[in-house]
Amino acid sequence: MRLSRRTASLSLAVALVLTLAYEAVPHARVPADEHEPAAPFGAACRIRVTGSKVTVYCHNPYPEADRVSLHVECARWWDIDTDSSPVEAGPAQTVRLTGRCWKEVGDVWISHRRAG
Questions:
Q1: Among residues 83, 90, 86, which one has the least CA distance to residue 43?
Q2: Pairing state of beta strands 44-50 and 53-60?
Q3: Lower Cβ count inside 10 Å, N or C end of the chain?
Q4: Contact at 8 Å (CB) between 79 and 16?
Q5: Are 111 and 76 in contact (CB under 8 A)?
Q6: Which residues constitute the signal peptide according to the record (predicted)?
Q7: pLDDT tens readout for residues 78-95
C-alpha cells in the first residue's frame, strides 16, 4: 500500500503542528524563594585501611552538626560486616571512628545524617 504525496504531506504537517503546540504549552513555574539551595552540610572524612583495621577521621567545617556512621564490609563471606553507632561531629569538630574485619577489608563507607 502506497501513500499518496498529499497524504504524506498532510501527515507531516499534522506532526509538525502537534510538536509546536506542545512546545507552546505553558509549564508550571515555582517561585525562586521556595527552592533556595540547601546550606552546605557534611563532614569531610579521611579513611585509612591498614590490614584488617579501619580508622576514619571526620572533620565538620559547617555550623550544623553531622551524625556520621562507619560501615565496614569484609572481603570474606564468613567475616562479619559492621556498622557503627552514629557519632555526632559538631561544628569545627573532628571525630575518630574505628572498625575491623578478621581478615581482609572489602569496602568501607561513611553515612551522614543531620543531627536533631
A1: 90
A2: antiparallel
A3: N
A4: no
A5: no
A6: 1-23
A7: 999 999 999 999 999 999
